[in-house]
Hints:
CATH superfamily of the largest domain: Response regulator
Structural class: alpha+beta
Low-confidence stretches: none
Strand order of the largest sheet: 4-5-6-7
CATH topology of the largest domain: Rossmann fold
Number of helices: 8
Number of domains: 2
Radius of gyration: 18 Å
Number of strands: 10
Helix content: 40-55%
Order of helices and strands: HHEHEHEHEEEEHEHHEE
Amino acid sequence: MAILEILSAYLKQDGHDIILVSNGLDAERELGSVDVAILDWMLPGQSGVDLTRQARVNYPNLPLLLLTARGDEDDRVYGLKSGADDYVVKPFRPREVMARVEALLRRANVRDVITLGSLMIGAQARSITLEGTDVPLSRTEFELLLTLARHLGIAFSRERLLERVWGPEFAGTERVVDVNIQMLRRKLKDDLDTPIFIETVRGYGYRFRDDA
């Protein structure tokens, strides 16, 4: 648990939103809603290596960092061949893990331009075009769209979207998510009854269609 708490503190200090779990089964449920996964080889319930294999099939673009006490060459090769993008041996310095996380995120952002049908999202340029025409979005609208578009077909609760886009300290209600989705849909010419991009998950939240 100490490692979890230390890494969580460093990640938060670096401005990352985190989902903290302590076993493999809970981790499996969260893989589709994160930008990078840090997995311990010896997770209870389901090992980090098994999760890595599974994630590589279900979420092929998800950056995966494997933590382990197994430091010999054969174990490193085994972990990387299981699908991990990087491998850190315990004991380690938290700053080393942070640097590797940033490197994985930069590498993932090489796929900077996300193309979904007639919609193009420039993640680093923070640009949106629809049918070749620029679409001006507010910072909040852009972050909301990017969060959903990076996780096609994954339903986000309103609570989760509040945490990721507005931040854990935001004191407003979940209604602000609905209002911003409404404005976003209007700018994307997305019809509520037959949406091309953003679907409502009744009683829960929203997801970006995986066939857009």
